[in-house]
Design a protein that fits this description.
single chain, alpha/beta, seven-stranded parallel sheet, 7 strands
Length: 170
């Protein structure tokens, strides 16, 4: 049986945890089946499982890239009898590390990239390889903290310079 994976990536303080918390607090996912949340990055925000809809959401922290392997991920899925997996991925880890680690029957359903509009241009200038790595795989790029005077065209150009496939939300 296939397991669907929702991937949330981006750099620290980009809004991943808050978005996932709101999704898990506002609606039931996976048709009532168990959901496994793999947390590969612990930032400023923390999850509040008491706010999750239902009691079928299980969190596991992945502290090291070596823990990302098919054997470990399969064991975690089986431990919770999960039918759906959400991954909050560390923005400093290469995407290929995760893709290589996914068990064969895990299907990447949707890949979201989060970015802070105020820091994204600098991240692109100073960590271009990591930014490109995340953008190439993204289906939706979500820019948070977009102020009234934000240069959305500069953000747009960076994304479009890497991919035409991703949708962009401000």
């Amino acid at each position: 049986m296939n397991t669907f994976v929702y991937l949330f990536t981006g750099f620290l303080d980009s809004g991943k945890t808050k978005f996932i918390q709101e999704v898990l607090s506002g609606q039931e996912l996976g048709g009532g089946g168990n959901t496994l949340l793999l947390i590969c990055e612990e930032g400023m925000e923390e999850y509040d499982p008491s706010e999750f809809v239902g009691q079928n959401i299980y969190c596991e922290i992945i502290e090291d890239q070596d823990e990302l392997n098919p054997k470990n991920l399969t064991a975690l899925k089986e431990k919770y009898n999960a039918t759906l997996v959400l991954v909050e991925y560390n923005g400093m880890w290469p995407m290929q590390t995760l893709f290589d680690a996914l068990p064969r029957n895990w299907i990447m359903y949707q890949n979201f990239m989060f970015a802070d509009a105020g820091t994204f241009v600098n991240y692109n200038a100073n960590m271009r390889g990591l930014v490109v790595d995340k953008l190439q795989a993204a289906e939706l790029v979500i820019f948070n903290r977009v102020g009234e005077n934000a240069d959305t065209m500069a953000l747009h150009k960076i994304v479009r310079g890497v991919t035409r496939r991703a949708d962009i939300a401000y």
